[in-house]
Design a protein that fits this description.
With 470 residues, the protein is an alpha/beta fold. It has 19 helices and 16 strands. Helix 3 links the parallel strand 3 and strand 4. Helix 2 runs parallel beside helix 3, helix 10 crosses helix 12 and helix 13 crosses helix 15. It starts with a strand and ends in a 16-residue tail after the last helix.
Length: 470
Amino acid sequence: MYSILVVDDEHDLRKHIVSLLSSRGYQVDEAADGLEAAELLARKTYPLILCDVRMPRMTGLELLRFIQTREYASTVALITAHGNIREAIDAIREGAFDYIEKPVNESVLIELVQKAERAYHMIFNMAYSAPVLNPGSPTEAIGQSRSMKSIFQMVERLGRVDTSVLIRGENGTGKELVARAIHFNGSRKNGPFVAVNCAAITDTLIESELFGHEKGAFTGADQRRIGKFQFASGGTLFLDEIGETSPALQVKLLRVLQDHSFTPLGSNREVKTDVRVIAATNRDLELAIKQGRFREDLFYRLNVMPIFLPPLRNRQEDIAPLVHHFMDKFNLKHSKKISSIGTDALVALEHFHWPGNIRELENAIEHAFILEASDQITFSSLPDYLKKASRKKPAPLRQTEDAFSPEAMNWERRKEDFEKEFIIQALKRFQGRINMTADQSNIPKNTLLRKIRKYQIKPSDYGAKELSFE
């Protein structure tokens, strides 16, 4: 059940909000001030926190910062008097979801709560399910990953604006799902969401697919056809695998983004379109620009708000919640009653590198469902390649000195050793790319650069041809 914490030092208002929300079926707790709320948050998770801006002991803004520093998976909405709206706006800039004014209008309050609940379900489904999303169906929060929290916040913020978005990540990480979450959380949610896989359509047909054509425009064009840019007007056009497009098509895409107009094949008429473009790729577009395969001006048009989706191997703590999510799904699909997973099977899944990411994990669980005869997923029911990979023993760590020798018992020295090794491993994982390493490893970029200089680390040793800020 979606649970809410109401925090306000005004007793009557707090009780009124609690009663109103409880009557709507929500699980509601209350706190008289920020400190009392902080104590409750240490014991229980609340998807939504409604709190007053000005309270004794801890203000609403201070509570928001407290929640952010402890990385609680909570959305904060503020209740403010008319004279305190500036403080509420400042809080939104720092990550609050929204605010309502006093005296509280019941319909406005319910609308805010429903909006927060929809965002909560959609964003968590985005992060913890396979890349399929049905925005009209109820979803369940099945886990939480630290590496995804910045993406949750970004998706919520992108729902408020109408800019182009570039989603980057490996295959199977859910790029289309993120695009759908942005669309259905934004002002265009009542318009169409149209997805086009640019890699799946030949160069000779992709232009017609996107821009349409007139009858007789080319051999086989026996009737006029409306393109996806016109069909998606008022909504969102998702261009998957944008890195696979030809230079000629990139020129036309750039014009649409600049002028919001295009010319169908075989026509002299100009068509206006009101469409938001979200693009996605698993390619290194910066390298493609250097090689002359992707236009730099188109890249900057698309890359206004980039989102990097982390691979599943960097979200090991999410394996177990995902497994149980897929177990529920396949119990229904295959009419089975598998309720658990064996420890050895789960360990094998958690230590696999998952080149196919969430999609591959889903396939592995379905494979186990088909073979498993008991009520528990066992190691023997996993795909053979997973069992084979799990039997490979990792090489023992080299130790040049006893961890508790007098030479090693030096805090500053050991801390520096750890910092250096952490940065090296992070650079290896992200091929020496400074921006991506900083973003995905949660290291401020200035700090990362300072440490690289301090420890004389060369990013070029780990994949970058030069000091790369990709």
